[in-house]
Design goal:
single chain, about 0% helix
Length: about 800
């Protein structure tokens, strides 16, 4: 979310001057350099005489600085350690604990209880199961008599739990070692872990230190989760990603199993600057932001993060790992101490002020639906915010006053509201309706073949510039009011029906009322997410629903660059989808990845056929390729039936069509699901797979509808595959029955009728329109309006 980055001065008369400020609400009191040393992270401490100290991690150890007088910091003590760039510091019960990534640095424990007179130190290198093994540590957190040691040299570098009942002599209490943990915070029995290289925040139950359990995982905006911290009420967690152009982000964690992102914020947006560490005090996120110094963000309304203070004391701008490493805001005086990598210690005095919040909902004035991409601007402050899909906007300012707010969107009349009062800590709600006489409204309907409405159908309306996904209500209706006139693609689908696809539909009147007819059946070209699931133990290349990205191996296409032809979109399921990487960047490795469909009820299907397009590429390695692609049907009782096993010897850079008569495998199919498994047997081969255009359809009408299938000798169309613009031969034999009123109908895979022809005999030809696109079609034979038989036709 784009928020105020260049702050403006507001005069008492409410006359506002648009001048950018680097530093506000955060005064620099002093700077203490450390010549010949670089600084890392920082913490604070208060002794028995109420003297305040900054505990500064440096490249040579820990520097203890008396900051009781913020104007004149005094270096009191230095505790030497191995020479290393990284150091983190935390305190517990009068002791400081210092980590380093320097070899054999261990965990330095500093007894601070005799300050200001002296300090004592020792090094802990492990006990019990990790006795004398602890050499390097990245970071740590301390909560409720336990130290959590992150990113050590032991195991995967997860989290080691140390009991601090005796703070001078920690004892090993357990370990979480499923994956590397870079940093984290613990509250109660929950660890909020920063899995930086995996790109997400882990939620881990650590109540049993010998058996920690992962509860959930949450990806962060830049997929490089560096730091986590909790708000005072423990209802929100904030994260940082340590990469260029990164965000401070907030999440609702009331339900740890259902974490919801609330907002994300950047200071100096567009500069590429990197956020580092954030800590929370009274719902203010006090954050070290490398080249931007210290930034204070009001997180009191975590769904609307607003910057309210800043001091950029660094010598650098933009992208780069220079400047402010860490910050500590918890000294009793209220002063903040911060570490600058190049320039040492800074002592700052904040003026904490609550933001002025402006939020609301934007709707269409005619039909009341929410409007996305509406630009909301506070003119005097230069602040702009766009509404999201749900029509909501959230913005605000550090400065109170009376402002003019505008609301604008292409195709709508701009609305200006004057005299909007914003005040510190107060929420101003401004809900607006916009009017347009140049937009198009679509009031659509989704029905079955008997004109019954279908609820909860996913509907996509898209053109070259935008795509909108809607859902039908209990009446089968959906509404979209803010389209610009033009040509769109309309797709409607639900699991258990055949997707309806209407490309090139023109909306150019006040209201259009398209009707989408869905035929019963199972069809998925993966335009929508119908609930397919992925499992398996492969270390890479798991199934993903994406627009495929092409990769090549020795001149052959290994991962498809496009989906199978014949559907209305570009999506498919493929195994991994690396963008810009080599052929082996995201193929299936060291195990299997399994893709499963939702359950299908085939109880009323007389003669169901399963069809799909598949891709399988298996090459490379030093021995013969033996990796495998399996296709299965799995019954509700767990019984698994293999339809086909593909072992490819050589390259195959194309989509292949597959079709199976289900009764050849299951005599009386009822509740089944489809499963495809790609297996890499860890022999260095390249393994890529894909699936698209999945379909299960009955060759005749379901039970209860009259059919003359038993009277049919055979029905054949050829050549198959065929080519648009050519003739298609047919041959029919009805076992002596009359051929009167026989018709051949051609439908596309979505059920749309392409053509109908009356048969003139048991043999003949029909013309295939030149406009037919490559793909899968169904040729059905009817007699007197009664369905007789169907055949599958491929146009290439």
């Amino acid at each position: 979310m784009s928020k105020l980055t260049g702050l403006l001065f507001l005069a008492l008369s409410i006359a506002i001057t648009a001048q950018s400020q680097e530093n506000y609400n955060l005064e620099e009191r002093s700077n203490l350099p450390f010549p010949g040393k670089s600084c890392a992270n920082i913490w604070g401490y208060v002794d028995s005489l109420n003297n305040e100290y900054a505990l500064v991690g440096t490249s040579t150890g820990l520097s203890i600085v008396d900051v009781t007088d913020p104007e004149s910091p005094i270096l009191s003590f230095e505790v030497n350690g191995v020479n290393n760039f990284w150091r983190e510091v935390k305190t517990w019960e009068g002791y400081a604990y210092v980590t380093t990534e320097g070899n054999n640095g261990g965990l330095t424990i500093v007894d601070l209880r005799s300050l200001p007179d002296t300090v004592y130190s020792r090094i802990y290198r492990g006990d019990g199961p990790i006795n004398n093994q602890l050499s390097t540590i990245h970071a740590l957190h301390i909560d409720n008599e336990f130290a959590y040691i992150y990113g050590s040299n032991i195991g995967e570098g997860g989290a080691i739990f140390l009991d601090l009942s005796d703070p001078w002599n920690p004892t090993y209490a357990g370990m979480y070692d499923e994956r590397y943990v870079h940093d984290g915070i613990v509250w109660g029995d929950t660890l909020w872990a920063s899995h930086i290289y995996d790109g997400f925040m882990g939620v881990i139950d650590v109540s049993n230190k010998l058996n920690p359990v992962t509860i959930n995982e949450q990806e962060t905006p830049n997929s490089f989760t560096h730091n986590t911290w909790l708000t005072d009420d423990r209802n929100t967690v904030l994260t940082t990603d340590e990469v260029s152009n990164s965000y401070l982000a907030s999440y609702n964690i009331n339900d740890a199993n259902n974490i919801q992102e609330l907002d994300r914020y950047q200071t100096a947006s567009g500069s590429g600057t990197i956020v580092h560490n954030t800590l929370i005090l009274n719902d203010y996120a006090v954050t070290s932001w490398y080249t931007e110094g210290v930034v204070i963000v009001d997180a009191h309304r975590p769904q609307n993060l607003i910057e309210v203070g800043k001091n950029d004391f660094t010598d650098f701008e933009g992208d780069g790992f220079n400047g402010c490493w860490g910050v500590y805001p918890y000294l009793p005086s209220g002063n903040i101490v911060a570490s600058d990598i190049e320039n040492g210690l800074y002592v700052l005095t904040p003026s904490y002020v609550r933001a002025c919040y402006l939020e609301g909902l934007i709707t269409d004035s005619i039909c009341g639906n929410q409007l996305d991409n509406v630009t909301v601007s506070i003119l005097e402050l230069g602040i702009s915010e766009n509404t999201g899909f749900e029509g909501l906007y959230k913005t605000g300012s550090v400065y109170s006053g009376v402002y003019t707010v505008t609301f604008s969107k292409d195709g709508y009349e701009t609305k200006t509201v004057e005299g909007v009062l914003l005040d510190h800590g107060e929420l101003t709600e401004l809900n607006i309706s916009l009017f347009s006489n140049s937009i198009v409204g679509v009031s659509g309907l989704v029905q079955d073949l008997d004109s019954n409405p279908i609820q909860n159908v996913l509907v996509s309306i898209s053109d070259a510039n935008a795509a909108y996904q809607l859902i039908s209500d209990s009446e089968g209706s959906y509404l979209k009011c803010d389209l610009l006139p033009g040509e769109y693609s309309l797709v409607a689908g639900q699991w258990g029906y055949v997707t309806s696809c209407t490309p090139g539909i023109t909306f150019n009147s006040d209201f259009s009322s398209p009707v989408s007819i869905l035929e019963v059946g199972y069809y998925d070209d993966f335009q929508f997410n119908f609930g397919w699931t992925v499992s398996g133990d492969a270390t890479a290349g798991n199934w993903v629903r994406v627009l495929p990205n092409e990769s090549t191996f020795q001149g052959a296409i290994s991962n498809p660059g496009v989906d199978a032809s014949g559907d209305c979109n570009g999506f498919a399921f493929v195994t991994g989808n690396s963008l810009g990487g080599g052929a082996g960047a995201d193929d299936v490795d060291d195990g299997s990845t399994i893709l499963r469909s939702p359950m299908m009820n085939l109880e009323n299907y007389v003669n169901p056929y399963l069809s799909f397009s598949r891709w399988f590429f298996n090459a490379g390695g030093n021995d013969a390729v033996n990796d495998t692609l399996y296709f299965r049907l799995v019954e509700q009782n767990g019984n698994s039936i293999t339809l086909k096993k593909v072992v490819q010897d050589g390259n195959a850079s194309q989509w292949f069509e597959e079709e199976f008569r289900i009764r050849d495998f299951i005599i009386n199919p009822s509740m089944v699901r489809f499963e495809v498994e790609a297996v890499d047997f860890a022999n260095g081969h390249l393994v890529e797979a894909g699936i698209d255009l999945f379909s299960v359809r009955d060759s005749i009408q379901p039970v209860g509808i009259s059919s003359s299938i038993d009277e049919l000798g055979f029905f054949k169309v050829y050549p198959n595959p065929s080519v648009a613009g050519r003739v298609l031969n047919y041959q029919v034999e009805m076992k002596g029955q009359s051929l009167d009123n026989l018709m051949i109908n051609i439908n596309d895979i979505a059920g749309k009728k392409i053509s109908s022809s009356i048969l003139s005999g048991n043999k003949g030809q029909i013309y295939l329109d030149e406009e037919l696109k490559p793909g899968i079609y169904f040729v059905s034979l009817t007699q007197g309006g009664r369905h007789v038989e169907s055949s599958r036709l491929v146009i290439i």
